């Protein structure tokens, strides 16, 4: 075990980062983690309404902040800078894709999802298509998305934790692995107490921490190093000529096809992520759903517009201070180093230790906030959609909450084990989850809301098709990283045209065609279902605890047909 830990540590330890225990940053981060636990305890849940949708009581600004924190994960706070640093122009696909997805949510889905008014994303699929089988597939997909997505968050938390707490390995685990275990234990601890209500309250706090830390770091690094004065988001362009052609020549490191595939997958994946869509169920009405999306997009853009600037500052400082000399070439900047470039930039700028610790704390807050949303949606898929709706329909609220908490623990354990030896950098790991959400869930949400003739048979055929198309490139590209010495794809031509990071480009059109074709060739859905879909587009407002189904059926339910 010790030998393995040493190998993992040498591969995962960021180059150039000061890995040592630092008292002031440690106090700062431990205080922050303690605050999260306290908020989780104060807002601990007592019923399923609070557990899954926060009692539908969250307002516009608070939900916008929660959307921002829930969204701006380690992949945004840390991983986006890493991608732009290592791949230049290609990294902008992530900025464009992740931002554009929210415009589609705002225009086509936010208000409609709130009017449909369920607890979870699988809830929508099961009830809209009158199918327990569709609900089960959506629940399994939701759990899988939460697991894959959370691996990147655990990696980010651990890498940042190395800067603050040092190489504190124990029981044969490396310092990196010890940080994974420690951070995930804290996250699981407060989530098992709080549920969605406490998680939302925490997300508002976490957003303030992460955006303050990110913007403060960007402005101070740029100003102290003479790279910028007032608007680093624009002034970083003066550095591009010193950073290599990767930053100025489109597709220097990647093909136009890969850029388009990645961007498209991130757009549709954003619209299919269960932990994003569930935010619309936590608000009072459809108007609040729309405005909280606008507010959330504003909060998100504060970070996204600054990420390229932070990358330019960090890359230049790395080139000037690193023993390897330059970012590119051999050996160049490693993936682990790039993943903490935001922290390393502040360190190389010779800023006070406590300030670098603040920047690091922002990365931890971002990762924990997103992990919270993922674990809540993943556990709700187990408790609400599988256990309560499919296994034990007479489950008490106490039993549902217990199963939900066990689901959070199970996700925490699985994520921790996978993150001990991750297969890819943060943003790549997260992108696999986006491709899955885009391929399987987005077509069901979009067609389910906008074409009333989409039926059970079409949904089942489409979801199974999307899942198959997603699995094939994952096996082709991810499995070799664990089973072969080179890590090269089994079938290189498949990786070129159906990349795991952008497989939704191929999957989504096929899934749409399959779903529409099968629906057209089979019986139309019941008229009651069509009425619910129409009610999702009605201009008449609905009450805080109402859903479209309540308006149509006066509180009745449309049972599953299979």
Explain how this protein is built.
The chain crosses the membrane at residues 23-43, 64-86, 92-111, 171-193, 205-223, 257-281, 293-313, 354-382, 402-420, 426-451, 458-476, 496-521. It comes from Haloterrigena salifodinae. This is Cation acetate symporter. It holds the Pfam family SSF. It is a multi-pass membrane protein. By secondary structure, the chain is mainly α. The chain is 72% helix and 0% strand. It has 25 helices and no strands. The longest helix is centred in the middle third of the chain and has 50 residues, at 175-224. The radius of gyration is 23 Å and the shape is globular. Mean pLDDT is 82; it is low at 1-11 and 555-561.
Radius of gyration: 23 Å
Q: What series of H and E elements makes up the topology?
A: HHHHHHHHHHHHHHHHHHHHHHHHH
* Major sheet summary line: none
Helix-residue proportion: over 70%
Q: Pairing-aware structural class of the strands and helices?
A: mainly alpha
> What's the helix count?
25
Task: Tell me what portion of residues adopts beta-strand conformation.
Answer: under 5%
Briefly say what this structure is:
The chain has 562 residues and is mainly α.
What are the main properties of this structure?
single chain, 562 residues, mainly alpha, 72% helix, 0% strand, globular, disordered C terminus, Sodium:Solute_Symporter
């Amino acid at each position: 075990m010790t030998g393995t830990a040493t190998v993992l540590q040498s591969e995962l330890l960021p180059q150039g980062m000061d890995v040592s225990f630092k008292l002031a940053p440690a106090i700062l981060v431990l205080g922050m983690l303690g605050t999260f636990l306290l908020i989780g305890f104060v807002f601990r849940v007592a019923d399923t309404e609070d557990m899954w949708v926060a009692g539908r009581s969250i307002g516009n600004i608070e939900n916008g902040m929660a959307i921002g924190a829930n969204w701006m994960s380690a992949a945004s706070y840390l991983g986006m800078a890493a991608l732009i640093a290592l791949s230049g122009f290609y990294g902008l696909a992530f900025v464009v894709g992740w931002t554009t997805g929210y415009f589609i949510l705002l225009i086509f889905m936010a208000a409609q999802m709130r009017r449909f008014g369920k607890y979870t994303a699988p809830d929508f699929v099961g009830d809209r298509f009158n199918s327990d089988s569709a609900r089960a597939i959506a629940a399994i997909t939701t759990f899988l998305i939460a697991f894959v997505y959370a691996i990147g968050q655990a990696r980010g938390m651990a890498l940042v934790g190395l800067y603050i707490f040092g190489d504190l390995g124990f029981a044969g685990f490396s310092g990196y692995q010890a940080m994974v275990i420690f951070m995930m234990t804290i996250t699981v601890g407060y989530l098992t107490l709080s549920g969605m209500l406490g998680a939302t309250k925490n997300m508002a706090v976490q957003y303030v921490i992460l955006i303050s830390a990110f913007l403060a770091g960007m402005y101070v690094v740029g100003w102290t190093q003479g790279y910028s004065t007032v608007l680093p988001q624009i002034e970083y362009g003066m550095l591009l000529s010193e950073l290599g052609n990767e930053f100025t020549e489109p597709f220097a490191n990647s093909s136009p096809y890969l850029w388009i595939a990645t961007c498209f997958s991130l757009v549709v994946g954003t619209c299919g992520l269960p932990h994003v869509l569930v935010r619309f169920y936590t608000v009072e009405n459809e108007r609040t759903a729309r405005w909280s999306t606008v507010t959330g997009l504003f909060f998100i853009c504060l970070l996204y517009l600054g990420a390229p600037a932070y990358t330019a500052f960090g890359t230049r400082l790395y080139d000037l201070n690193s023993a390897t000399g330059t970012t590119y070439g051999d050996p160049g900047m490693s993936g682990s180093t790039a993943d903490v470039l935001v922290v390393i930039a502040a360190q190389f700028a010779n800023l006070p230790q406590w300030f670098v610790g603040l920047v690091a704390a922002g990365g931890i807050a971002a990762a924990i906030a997103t992990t919270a949303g993922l674990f809540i949606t993943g556990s709700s898929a187990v408790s609400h959609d599988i256990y309560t709706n499919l296994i034990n329909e007479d489950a008490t609220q106490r039993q549902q909450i217990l199963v939900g908490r066990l689901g959070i623990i199970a996700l925490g354990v699985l994520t921790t084990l996978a993150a001990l030896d991750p297969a890819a950098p943060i943003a790549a790991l997260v992108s696999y989850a986006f491709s899955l959400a885009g391929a399987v869930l987005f077509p069901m949400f979009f067609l389910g809301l906008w074409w009333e003739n989409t039926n059970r048979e079409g949904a089942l055929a489409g979801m199974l098709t999307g899942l198959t198309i997603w699995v094939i490139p994952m096996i082709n590209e991810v499995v070799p990283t664990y089973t072969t010495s080179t890590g090269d794809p089994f079938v290189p031509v498949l990786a070129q045209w159906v990349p795991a990071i952008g497989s939704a480009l191929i999957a989504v059109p096929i899934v749409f065609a399959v779903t529409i074709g099968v629906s057209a060739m089979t019986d139309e859905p019941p008229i009651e279902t069509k009425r619910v879909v129409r009610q999702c587009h009605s201009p008449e407002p609905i009450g805080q605890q109402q859903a479209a189904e309540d308006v149509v059926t006066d509180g009745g339910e449309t049972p599953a047909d299979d």
